[in-house]
Amino acid sequence: MSDQGTMHQGTMNGAEWLARALAGTGMSHVFFVESVMRRTLLQLGDLGVRPILAHSEKAAAYMADGYARVAGRPGVCMAQSVGAANLASGLQDPWLGRTPVIALTGHKEPSFQHRNSYQEIAHAPLFQPVTKFSTPVYTTGELPRLLRHAWRAALSDTPRPTHLDFNGLQGDVIELGQTAEPPVLETEARRIPLHRPVADERDIERAASLLTGARRLVIVAGDGAAASGAGPEVLALAEALAAPVATTLGARGIIPTTHRLSAGVAGSYSAPPANRIVHGADLVLFIGCDTGDQVTLNWTVPAIDTRIVQIESDPLEIGRSYPNTTGVVGDPKATLARLNQIVGRPARDGSYAEEAARIVADWRAGMASLVEKNTAPIAVERLCAEITRALPSDGVLVADTGYSGIWTGTMIDLNGAGQTYLRAAGSLGWAFPASLGAQCAAGSRKVVCFTGDGGFYYHLAELETARRCRIPATIVINNNSGFGQNLTGVRRISGNRPGRGEELIRFGPTDFTEVAKSFGVRGIRVEQPEDIAPALRQALAADQPVVVDVVTDLEPRAPEAWSPPRPQS
Ligand SMILES: Cc1ncc(C[n+]2csc(CCOP(=O)(O)OP(=O)(O)O)c2C)c(N)n1
Q: What phi and psi, each to the nearest 5 degrees, are found at residue 310?
């Protein structure tokens, strides 16, 4: 090809076009594993976008996920052909968590297909279940159109990953051709959600009259409400209608968690109050909430026949799981702003809000002895209380799945203003790489990762990335030498015989400060409760990554969700 790598009048090499187009969106970092798109990565660096070399493709995808959620713009991750399967597996969490991650891979030329090529299986089936849009790119000429489509698809409601698979195992096709298209992806670079349609006025009025007519109204705010930045509008509505506010785990902190109307996280990863309060409602207002099994405790909270009003930007979500639903399709923040105007300040009976506040206060009082526990082994409730105190007012908390989600979602309070809570959508090990990506987007805001030791083992190698790239996240490890959450289940199936089956879930002990040190990362070991606060203070003040390895015990159980009584048969 005669024009390889050279610049013609008004045209540009595809690799350069890609770099300029990505840089033009305002992104600051991309995440990759060598060997892929080297020219693009070098040019991105020249344009001020930092390529972060990760140690596995899955970690690169998680970094892009954390980055996107904090930046409010797409996160980009890249891998060569043989890394595509690993990258695709890393898209499960952003798919479930509804994050616009854009994955770029290479594949071998058509002439290599169907003849036992080294290192490659079909990519399309790998990406099909975890992307909204996935397509091969065979020429540079197609690149601008397909990348723009991948960009739009990732960002449009509901945001989710997309994928471009470039010809050539390192994505070489874009090295070969020229394009005259301007390197521009977006007409206007905006934070997500890009569009904020307000629902139909009659639908909002109908919702307002249902809501004001309910006596025991409860709001359940979901990840969509959090993504829309609807916290102030949710709180204003809750106050106007004296409605307790429960949230999905991902919307933890959308309003201040210590507010008298905050009922906490509802569903399966919850403390008892929220489920009791939601289940006691005569009408539930879901806002940007997927009504999935996790937030509804397998569709029992609220009960399936409860009257529902649902505000949701994606019409497909209206009534997906609750038949008795009145839908309002619009961006949560923009639609709530109008709803609040219509609702005004009606006279309300505040007795259900008072009852809810009492349920929460009683539960908190019951937790006080653990929250204040002063002796070793350290209670995780105490660790959480120390994180509540230490997290800066604009801090970002990134939680892993399982107990890490339950502990942080029930025992760490958030201010409902500048703080951000990100949680795994289920993949153990997600939090550590995601926190590194989040920190890349967060600038001077501090990111705190909360992970169990089981979760942390997954991507230990990224300690090297954190040091090399000087990503100053604070990594708190709840180090209980095993899969704590799974102890209950193993005991149950082994007939509660002491020790029986525990080899399935116990490991360690490991001193993660020694592990960190071997990667050149600072570590602080904490074995006594009074040492947690100083350790967090030092870690948060550092301009480098710090591992805070907190030694806890495997036995204590995290808060358990309240389940409604089974109907008599
Ligand atoms: C990829 C993946 N594999 C397995 C699981 C199942 N799982 C959920 S929580 C958990 C244990 C987590 O252990 P750890 O991170 O040490 O936290 P702890 O429960 O001890 O607080 C496991 C194995 C999962 N969620 N994701």
A: -130, 120
d(CA 381, CA 335): 37
Q: List, in order, residues 6 or more apart from 495 with CB less than 8 Å away.
A: none
Fill in the amino acid letter for 300: T
* Whole-structure pTM value: 0.97
- 408 in contact with ligand 1, CB cutoff 6 A: no
Average pLDDT, rounded, for the chain? 96
Q: Which residue among 401, 478, 502 has the greatest number of ligand 1 atoms within 8 angstroms of its CB, and so is best to mutate?
A: 401
What is the identity of the amino acid at 204? I
Phi, psi of 548 (to 5 degrees): -110, 105
Q: What are phi and psi of 30, to 5 degrees?
A: -130, 160
Residue 316 CB partners (closer than 8 Å, separation 6+): none
Secondary structure string (H, E, C) spanning 33-82? CCCCCHHHHHHHHHCCCEEEECCCHHHHHHHHHHHHHHHCCCEEEEECHH
Compute the distance between CA of residue 170 and CA of residue 193 in angstroms, rounded to an integer. 32
- As a whole number of angstroms, the distance between CA 247 and CA 207 comes to 20
pLDDT band per the 50, 70, 90 thresholds, residue 335: very high
Number of residues that make up the chain: 569
The number of CA neighbours under 13 Å toward the Cβ of 434 is 37
483 ligand 1 Cβ < 6 A: yes
66 close to ligand 1 (CB < 6 Angstrom): no
Distance CA 51, CA 22 (A): 12
Q: Which of 366, 381, 357 is nearest to 263 (CA)?
A: 357
Task: State which of 428, 502, 512 you would mutate to test the pocket of ligand 1, scoring each by most atoms of that ligand within 8 A of its C-beta.
Answer: 428
Residue 63 near residue 437 (C-beta atoms within 8 A): yes
Q: How far is the CA of 486 from the centre of ligand 1 (A)?
A: 7
Output helix, strand, coil percentages for the chain, rounded to the nearest 5.
40, 15, 40
* Positive/negative CA dihedral, 209, 258, 443, 162: negative
Q: Give the helix ranges, DSSP H, for 256-393.
A: 272-279, 293-296, 332-343, 351-371, 380-390
> In this predicted model, what pLDDT tens digit does every residue of 447-483 receive, in sequence order?
999 999 999 999 999 999 999 999 999 999 999 999 9
